[in-house]
Design brief:
The structure is a single chain. The chain has about 140 residues and is an alpha/beta fold. The protein has a single domain, classed as Rossmann fold (3-Layer(aba) Sandwich), CATH 3.40.50. The chain has helices spanning about 10-20, 30-45, 65-75, 95-105, 115-125, and strands at about 5, 25-30, 50-55, 85-90, 110. It has a five-stranded parallel beta sheet, with helices on both faces. Helix 2 (about 30-45) runs parallel beside helix 3. It starts with a strand and ends in a 9-residue tail after the last helix.
Length: about 140
């Protein structure tokens, strides 16, 4: 499973990477523009990401823009329904509006920071991804 973490906070990126270490190789993007470029490069090299963690509040392009790009690009490239990347939104915002907008835009799951192993396992299960057995 190829993974991308799009998160502007260095510590949050490292913690999340540690929590998901057993799932597969992981790339990181420090802002939305880097995330979009990573997605583009992955598709162009024939190695798209299977799982993407997207922070909603990032510089250069916010998480909603990255998610929109992801879903539009998957449609443009003919990714079959049900074969899309799992997109888990990560954010400090847990209000109903933000959560519902994320799911409406195509998020697979949603997890509120600070991310705990239990919350991450639930988000992965909600997205249909096998839950890691290693502890934090």
């Amino acid at each position: 499973m190829r993974i991308l973490i799009a998160e502007d906070d260095f510590v949050a990126r490292k913690v999340l990477a540690r929590l998901i270490a057993g799932l597969g190789p992981c790339d990181m993007a420090a802002n939305g523009a880097e995330a979009i470029e990573a997605l583009r490069l992955a598709w162009d090299t024939g190695q798209p990401y299977d799982l993407i963690f997207i922070d909603i509040m990032m510089p250069e392009a916010d998480g909603k823009a990255v998610l929109r790009f992801l879903r539009e690009e998957e449609a443009r490239r003919g990714v079959a329904p049900g074969k899309e990347a799992k997109a888990i939104m990560t954010t400090a915002l847990d209000d109903v509006k933000t959560v519902s907008e994320s799911f409406f835009a195509g998020a697979s799951a949603y997890v509120v920071k600070p991310i705990t192993l239990e919350a991450l396992q639930k988000a992965l299960a909600d997205a249909g991804v096998a839950v890691p057995s290693a502890s934090a």
